[in-house]
Design brief:
twelve-stranded mixed β-sheet; about 250 residues; alpha/beta; about 35% helix; 10 helices
Length: about 250
Amino acid sequence: MAAIKIMPCLDMKDGRVVKGVHFVDLKDAGDPVQNAAFYQQEGADELAMLDIAATLENRGTMLDWVRKVAEVIDIPLTVGGGIASLDDIEQVLSAGASRVSMNSAAVKHPELVRAAAQKFGSDTITIAVDARRNPVMPSGFELVIAGGTKPVGLDAVVWASRCEQAGAGMILPTSMDGDGTCAGYDLEFTRAIAAAVSVPVVASGGAGTLEHFYEAVALGGAQILLAASVFHFRTFTIRQVKDYLRQKGIEVC
């Protein structure tokens, strides 16, 4: 297994970093540029920035935020939210992003995944797979879009596999049931995705203890560990997480 990476996530709304529980009840978590610079200094391997209101507000990603954050870091930056076309992807990459993350637009227009991978390269395309538990689905997880507000009647694990086949280079699954709760990653969901694809999987949603990060690797099969609340509110530093993983025998970057 490749060395594990740590990826803080900046959820963006109205120019500020925010963090909620189950995608709602948002609290201010600071300035995105200051946070980005701090996390790079702390040892982050990658950074994610998600414009959480873009799809709901029917607009594209705020490119100014991308430019300002990209100027203060040199680690890979994944940007998501409101990316709905090849032109959108080109603009976000031109603004300084290393990768784009798509969710709603990819579900509505599956051909976009293949076209984007062919034009910009698979390594550039991440598919965010938001899901909630639904026993009717074969895997037990139903895909949701539009910031977690709309279930689409599609099995989330099947969808992740289709996206890999279409050329996506990374899958970012987030469990609606765990997001922001600090109760732990949804290991069953993460493991199901990791077993279904061969590209890197990002564990996301619910990290609250050092043990949770270890479990995401050892039990969930994740290769990149995304977290927000525990870093924004200084529960742990990135160095603490990496040191803990090393002590548990996990190779980290």
